[in-house]
Amino acid sequence: MQTRGLPELTPDTTYIHDNTKTMNSKSYYIGLDVHKNTTAIAYAQGGSREDAVYHGTCGGSLGAIERALAKLAKKLQVDRQELKVCYEAGPTGFVLVRRLRHLKLECVVMAPTKSTRKPGEKVKTDKRDAVKVAREFRNGDIVEVRVPPATDEAVRDVSRARTDASDDLRRSKQRLKSFLLRSGHHYEGRANWSGPHMNYLRSMSLADPAQAIVLEEYLAAIDGAHERVQRLTSKMKEILETWEWKPVVNAVMALRGFQEVAAMTFVGELGDLRRFRNPRQLMGFLGLVPSEDSSGGKRRQGAITKCGNNHARWMLTESAKQCRHKPKVGPALSRRQEGQSQEVKALSWRAQNRLNEKYRRLHARKLLANKVTVAIARELSGFLWELMNKCEVGVPERTVTD
Questions:
Q1: Is the pTM of this model over 0.90?
Q2: Can you give the residue range of the structural domain that contains 41?
């Protein structure tokens, strides 16, 4: 569905594909509608004004798609390298595009949210989708999705698994607290889930044997989730030692609010920020800009768009909460800044002062805390863009074209 009033870049997009200079009559533009078990295939000839032609379906496996493309090339009497393949981004990920590129086939992934759809179009089938993808691919009307390197995607998976484990830990703790409150028990100590609190829970005895089992199960769930978080955190730190993005992660950690997990999550989710021409594009990509529905002389702005990478947006807002404290380079931040250039340290100090001043100014206006945090996160993303674009932080050169 075409979205109006949003910034130029949509989730995980890079640029509009333009075939006007590279199109030749010998090439065929293949549109795939990929699903778990089936794949619909259509093709359109380069340099032709005829509509795309539906070819058929095949299985959803990589082998089935490879065989189907080989048969299609034989049918069209062209070399397999003359096939240019495109499919929409979806739950099947980037395995297919990596496989086809390994076989020396040109393959791109398009953003489904930027494909055109007529207002009265109510019929949607796999056949129609494949034909539309092939047609728009040939005409250069698609917006490509950035395909991350396999290693970066693995780091992203580990960071998201850690987030899931943290969510499970939080839910397990809340369930135990709710259970004890229903049972008439309430901890009156200072800090929940501290050492004394855990000792209090483990030494607790409930009169009903069934409730005692429930208590032990909840405690076991908390211990299991905590161990998962620790294992995945250790794995992230282990991967960081050999990851090519380590210099960039270390530079991001020089900013207040970013430790290993937050910095790795942000870099793993977004990759090279140099593909954004200015900070406003990055803010729009993250969905941190206000939505707008203006017409005529009226201007209406609403909540943030929340388009783009929600995991990166969440991590950014969590890091932005640290900006409510007074600017200071404490011992922990000082250790993280060791080995960084004066340029990076100066940017970090400038970010602290500017963001804290903005926090105090917005807080004085008595805005909701969530709105203040989002405003700080939006401006913090601008400093991260500047860090990667204007500071020498060792960004891998090959990522410019990824």
A1: no
A2: 13-145
